[in-house]
Structures are given as C-alpha cells and as structure tokens.
UniProtKB/TrEMBL annotation:
Pfam families xref list: HTH_1 (PF00126), LysR_substrate (PF03466)
Domain of life, per lineage: Bacteria
Protein name as annotated: Molybdate transport repressor ModE-like protein
Transcription regulation is among the record's keywords: yes
Organism: Kitasatospora cineracea
Domain HTH lysR-type, chain residue ranges per copy: 1-56
Gene Ontology MF term list: DNA-binding transcription factor activity; transcription cis-regulatory region binding
Family listed: Belongs to the LysR transcriptional regulatory family.
Organism placement in taxonomy: Bacteria, Bacillati, Actinomycetota, Actinomycetes, Kitasatosporales
InterPro entries linked: LysR_HTH_N, LysR_subst-bd, WH-like_DNA-bd_sf, WH_DNA-bd_sf
Alphabetic keyword roster: DNA-binding, Transcription, Transcription regulation
Length: 294
C-alpha cells in the first residue's frame, strides 16, 4: 500500500476538502482525486463521501490505520536519517516561494563560509508543505511565509515539537494593472473589493479563503487560477489584468503596475523559521545566523 496514497487520504479527511488537501500537499486537485480513487480501487470500498467531503464508515477505519502507519514510517525515516552520517555535511532547507529573501540567503552563505565542505540543498514547496516536511522529519529546518494579522504567528496547524519563530513581516498591497478603476487610489479596504475579480494563487498571493476570513464576509470570486510557485509568473498575470492579488507591498511594487496599500483589515506578510528541537551542527548554525524579527 503506497504511503503517498495514505497521506493523501488522511489529509483530505482532516481538511474535508480535495482542493485544500491539494494545496497542503503540493498536488493538483485532480491528482488528489486520482489518488483517492486508486486507494478505493485497491481496497475495494468507498472511503470518502464527495458532497460534502467526509469519510465513510470504511474510510474512518482506514484513516485510523493510515495515521498509525504514517507515524511509524515517519519515525523510521527520521531514525535512519539520524544514524546516517554522510562523508560530507549537508544542510537541507525547505522554503516556500516567497520565503527565500536576502536574509535567508546570507544566513546560508555564512554557514557555508564557516564550513566550506557543507553542501546546501534547497527545496521550494507550498507553504503548508514546508511545515509538514519539518514536522515529519524530512528536513530539520524550514522557512515559510504567509499572511496574518500584524504580530501574529502563522496558523500552521499542529506541528508537534517543531519550534516556530518569526523572521519579520511587511505590509501588504493589492496589485492591479495600470488603468484599472482602482489605480488612482492611495489605499484600499479589502472589504470594499469583495465583489472584484481576483486571481486565485494560494501558494504565492494571500489565499482568497484568508481574505474572506479577514473581512468577515464571503465573495472574493476568482476569475483566474494560478497553481504554480513562481512569483514572477503570478506578477505577469496580475499586470496583464487577469485579476487582483494581495501580495507583500515590496513585491507588488516591483511589478511595474499599481500597488495599493491595504488599509483594512490589518494584514501583514510574515516569514517564519521552523525547526526541530534537536539540530545537527549545520542546521543549528543556520538557525542562529538568521535575523529574528517579530
């Protein structure tokens, strides 16, 4: 039985949504649906109701077994990694698309300068996948980002013993193309834009679900979807008029279009470092080299 299928089942059952599970796991929604169908075919039983999404009786029992199996597999994987001492020291870092800022790059340069033998490996993953990778022991350190109230930690779910520390935050802005009806404004209230056309790019821009929560309402209809991790591609779509997007103010301003500061609700783009309670020397040196923020 494929562990990837089991992890997908557990994630869909926990979130109650195929699309939310796809975002967290870094898959497309169709890939998640195919994986669930493959697991149901292998077991010969329906595991999930589709509308609304939730486990069947057989699915609840399978989720219980899957959680135990995945916990044992993650523990075994982490155990073997701890016992494996490579000839050349390595630092594996998981980062989300907007988390690799100059401060992170400088911290990596410092640890490599201190130990020229060190091999650095950087993996770019969706925001929640970074947290899941660190929590599962796939890597000791991750740097992720997200959108939250100023001074508030990112909501990353249950990370177990993983530690979470802020690296800094910045204001947000709405990116819209030149000539858009909003382009002459000096700032915006997101609640007044709930009926505008939006780009749904949850791996880079502020997820539309978060904007609905922050404004206490609904709407924020998506007129275009972007499922990639490349910020430059998203900026190009927004500048070309495919929809509005909330982004870090500096990034939005770099696009060569109109970046309107978000005045309400209070919203910030935040970066955080996630790390295991016990770190090897390269990982500890990297974490210590990072400038801590709010």
């Amino acid at each position: 039985m494929d562990s990837h299928l089991l992890r997908t089942l557990v994630t869909v059952a926990r979130l109650g949504s195929f699309s939310a599970a796809a975002l967290e796991l870094g898959y497309t929604q169709s890939a998640v649906s195919q994986q669930i169908a493959a697991l149901e075919a292998e077991l010969g039983a329906p595991l999930l109701h589709r509308r609304p999404v939730g486990p069947t009786g057989a699915g609840e029992r399978m989720v219980e077994h899957a959680r135990l199996l995945l916990e044992r597999m993650d523990a075994a994987r982490a155990d073997v990694r701890r016992l494996s001492v490579p000839d050349r020291p390595q630092l594996l870092l998981a980062v989300s698309p907007l988390a690799m800022d100059p401060a992170v790059a400088r911290a990596l340069a410092k640890v490599r300068q201190d130990d020229p033998r060190l091999r650095v490996r950087v993996r770019v993953l969706p925001r929640r996948a970074v947290a899941a990778e660190v929590a599962a022991g796939g890597c000791a350190v991750g740097v992720t980002d997200g959108y939250t109230a100023p001074g508030g930690p990112l909501a990353l779910g249950d990370l177990g013993p993983v530690r979470q520390a802020g690296l800094g935050e910045e204001p947000c802005a709405v990116l819209c193309p030149a000539g858009h009806p909003l382009h002459r404004r000096t700032g915006v209230d997101l609640g007044q834009l709930a009926d505008a056309g939006w780009l749904d790019a949850p791996a880079v821009a502020a997820p539309l679900a978060d904007l609905r929560t922050a404004t206490g309402g609904g709407a924020f209809p998506a007129v275009a979807d972007y499922e990639g991790l490349d910020a430059a591609a998203l900026l190009a779509l927004a500048v070309a008029g495919h929809g509005l997007a909330v982004l870090p103010r500096a990034l939005a301003a770099s696009a060569g279009a109109t970046a309107l500061p978000v005045r309400a609700p209070r919203l910030a783009h935040r970066r955080e470092v996630l790390f295991a309670p016990v770190l090897d020397a390269p990982a500890r040196a990297f974490v210590d080299a990072l400038p801590r923020g709010v």
